[in-house]
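Hey L., structure's done. Input below.
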Amino acid sequence: MEPKAKKALLIAAGAVAAVIIAIVIFVLTFDINRYKPRIEAAATEAAGMKVSIKGALRLELFPLAAVSIEDIRIENQNVTVASVKKAEVELSLLGLLAGKVRIRRAGLYGPVITVVRDKSGRLSFETQEKGPKAGKAPARALEVGKVFVRNGRVVYSNEETGKKVEANGCGLDIKGLSLEKGKPAVFASFDGDLSCREVKADGLDITGLHVVVKDRLGKFEANPVTMKAYGGNGRGSLKGVLSGESPRYSAEFTLSKFRPEAVL
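Output:
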């Protein structure tokens, strides 16, 4: 190897080594928790509800760039409407070095969503003046390679009727999520897979709920929807259009090999 080429190679190797050392020092000394108030403020503005982080934040750059946040609470009118034990966001390191945020994967562990309809008909995530809070539309197009939820729980209760619906052990896997610039989340596009271990509602017990769903800019289809209920097997589909002033839905469902005494 010629002396000039050898020297250039050594300089390049030294530069790469310096970058790696700088990144290692950055990881070891950087305290992301100092930015907790700014993260809470940005999340509050995006969600349209108060978001607070009770736990720790962690930043990792190897083997992948990732941020984890523990114990997240979302409140509206001083009432907790959602909580998450842990959230993880995995980013593209090359994108960060280029000054761009590219989300490879995002996940929630142990989320609990509580929706209450009070005696006046108002939902717990509504405001009296503006109705449901949808948050702000993204200022730029957003793409996420994969979104997942593990061991989620959803509880809905109606204070006027006393009825309650509860879904436990829920999981969600979404691929190819994209949000268009300037448009709310209802205009998302994705392919997903939803499952819940059990759903209880006013004496009805459903187990093994599984839904394959896709959404294309507010037009969604859940097909098939399968479950076990009344000792039988249920199967159906659901279609809807969420865009426009009034959402539209259509559903088909069959239940086979059920036990009549369970229905009665």
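Residues 133 and 234 are 34 Å apart (CA to CA). The chain is about 20% helix and 55% strand.

-- N.
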